[in-house]
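Sanity check. The docking grid for LBFN2T5F depends on where the pocket ends up, so I'm generating a full predicted complex first rather than guessing from homology. Inputs follow.
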Amino acid sequence: MNFTKMQGAGNDFIVIDNMDNSIELPAPLIEAMCRPHFGIGADGLILVEPSESCDVRMNYYNQDGSIAEMCGNGVRCLAKYAADAGIVDASKPFEVETRAGKIGVQVLESYRGVSTIRVSMGSVSFETQEIPVISDKTTLLGEKIAYKDQELIYGCASMGNPHMAVLVENVDSFPIEEVGPYFENHPMFPNKCNISFAEVISPDSIAMDTWERGVGRTLACGTGTCATVAVLHRMGLVGNKVHACLSGGDLVIELDGKTVFMTGPAKVVFTGTYEMQVPNEEEALFAALREL
Ligand SMILES: N[C@@H](CCC[C@H](N)C(=O)O)C(=O)O
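Predicted complex below; grid placement will be based on this.
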């Protein structure tokens, strides 16, 4: 199977052309392809598909093979792929269909293989029912929650997928690997949750990292950054244009009412062919074949 490996701010994806709708990938096969060291290795897998309502469709899967409604860094990579392959005319803005709705995309510039892409990410929602998060309250913004002997301040938001933003004093020393999975699988989140840890540096600058649902710690999360900036803005901690410094790169987030815009990079890393019959992956392959 031919694929293109791409990354946006260090969040990496296997991108596969499915414009003829001929490819259906069972979850165990996606997991095998994304598995670091044994597979191609990626945080997620994107099938580039035709759309009836937009210029192109993003069919997104997490590293563990689970479906996600939306991926911010992934949509920039898909946009670059579609532009480079001539699937869309990138000289003007275009639209991408996702499970979270229509996303507006504009390729701002391409320089030395890196495209800078501005994405209209749609509306943020703070409604607990929409996120979803189980609570008596209609929104959770600036709430306190206990973790072991600590009291953490957090807020929740949806960018089509669920997010919890936790305020931390120092993102580099915070035990993300421990706290991330605890909240990802917390009973308050019926669909699990992406957990971002944010340090406010100034009203227009934050440092953050995300523990992603279905993946683990990643170098950047686009929807997580949008949700976190929106939560921090509602808590009065940042303005409406914020520079986010993530482990894998930087994103700029702008808020216009409830609409969120994200600007960041997208790059092709390499192209290749995935050999399906690798001995170490026999079990995953058999499981995948059983599902076909
Ligand atoms: N990396 C992404 C988010 C991918 C989906 C997420 N793990 C989920 O399950 O919702 C991004 O850049 O937004």
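Relevant for the grid: The chain has five helices and 16 strands.
Also worth noting: The pocket of LBFN2T5F is lined by residues 11, 44, 62, 68, 71-74, 161, 194, 212-215, 218, 221-224 (CB under 6 Å).
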